[in-house]
From TrEMBL:
GO MF term list: metallocarboxypeptidase activity; zinc ion binding
InterPro entries in the record: Peptidase_M14
Record protein name field: DUF2817 domain-containing protein
UniProt keyword terms in alphabetical order: Hydrolase, Metalloprotease, Protease, Zinc
GO biological process terms, semicolon-separated: proteolysis
Species this protein is from: Wocania arenilitoris
Length: 384
């Protein structure tokens, strides 16, 4: 698809009722109610706490695509993008009828509603659903597995979000979007099924490189059959992991939302128009593997010595995402005090060898949370 056309569609169809990071059943149920007269909207199960797990089906085509988001409750960017996508596909003026004629999409917008409400990765039983693919010990896991078995998808989209620590390779480029064609055996064999997933990822990467060059990564493909993607791939269903990451100063993940939307549309168009056999999988290997190279903030050349003793180090700060009064707040926390030569900050501050003190005038300490720091008697706000 034409990049400018995708961007125009996004601006027109971005779901205005979904924004920032805290997306729950309460957020999406009014939207689902609006959709139920146009699409097949169902409750397909209940969570540990009895909250509804919803689904939306759209399209009439023979190519079946299963998409699920918020398996981890605090990874909501892809959920926003799913509703942007549904809005787009419902608009006949989008000229995407060919996608709906070729494909049937089965969408689970929030698989883990309890985790979404609590803004946690795990479900109400403190189980990571993405490590429960074999045990199927949780009701949410059983719901997804049942849909997989009854819908019998030809493709799976496993939609997630990733932390701000990741770089696209050993660079100072943030991994804004990441992908993975999961392994389906312990030897990480490049199977025909994986080649199909790799080919689709290659097309998405080519599109994203025009917008966010060198900001796309892939994950290590070490095999873990407890992971849902690895399990579905092992059943010979091409499965793609999507990871919504960090774009510069976009902690609300609204720009990343656009790039996930772009990826979804590009891949669906490609699937609709082509018979994919994995012949063009090689481009996948041009995408660099993610590395952990970032802090949210690095204060360089900071005097962190006690008393009159000078000690020049770097200070690595990560934002802790905390749900406070129904809103996700970002609380700066000191993670490292050492030379961080091989790391980058999404924001960097040069202390110029001045003492860096906390808000109480005390020396900075690891694990302390600080809204601001003092450098040379100047108050520096760490997040605003």
């Amino acid at each position: 698809m034409n990049t400018e056309a995708i961007k125009s569609l996004f601006l027109k169809h971005k779901e205005a009722h979904l924004k920032h990071r805290y997306i729950t059943n309460h957020s999406i149920e009014p939207l689902l109610k609006q959709l139920q007269n146009k699409l097949e909207v169902d409750i397909i199960g209940k969570s540990v706490l009895g909250n509804s797990i919803h689904s939306v089906k759209i399209g009439t085509g023979s190519k079946k695509i299963l998409m699920w988001s918020q398996m981890h409750g605090n990874e909501s960017t892809t959920t926003k993008a799913l509703f942007d996508l549904l809005n787009t596909l419902l608009d006949q003026g989008s000229n995407l009828s060919y996608v709906l004629k070729a494909c049937t999409l089965y969408v689970i917008p929030i698989l883990n509603p309890d985790g979404a409400a609590a803004y946690t990765r795990v479900n109400a039983n403190k189980i990571d659903l993405n490590r429960d693919a074999q045990d199927l010990s949780q009701p949410e896991s059983k719901v997804l597995n049942a849909i997989f078995n009854t819908f019998k998808p030809h493709f799976c989209y496993n939609l997630h979000g990733q932390r701000t620590i990741f770089s696209a390779g050993n660079t100072n480029n943030s991994a804004t979007v990441s992908f993975l064609a999961p392994a389906q055996d312990i030897d990480c064999t490049i199977t025909p099924t994986r080649k199909i997933a790799m080919e689709i990822i290659g097309t998405m990467n080519a599109k994203l490189q025009k917008e966010i060059p060198n900001q796309v990564g892939v994950y290590d493909d070490a095999f873990n059959l407890n992971c849902v993607g690895d399990t579905f791939q092992s059943k010979n269903v091409p499965t793609i992991l999507f990871e919504a990451g960090h774009f510069h100063e976009d902690y609300a993940r609204e720009k990343t939302r656009e790039y996930i939307y772009m990826s979804m549309l590009e891949s669906l168009s490609y699937i609709a128009k082509n018979t994919i056999d994995g012949s063009f999988y090689d481009d996948y290997f041009d995408i660099p593997e993610n590395e952990k190279r970032f802090f949210d903030i690095i204060i360089r050349n900071a005097d962190v010595g006690e008393g009159y003793k000078s000690k020049i180090e770097d200070i690595g700060i990560m934002f802790q995402e905390k749900l406070i009064s129904g809103k996700v707040e970002f609380i700066p926390k000191i993670e490292k005090i050492e030379k961080l030569t091989n790391f980058y900050g999404h924001k960097e501050i040069d202390a110029n060898r001045y003492k860096v003190l906390d808000e109480f005038g005390d020396c900075i300490k690891i694990d302390s949370e600080n809204v601001f720091v003092m450098i040379n008697n100047e108050r520096i706000i760490l997040f605003s």
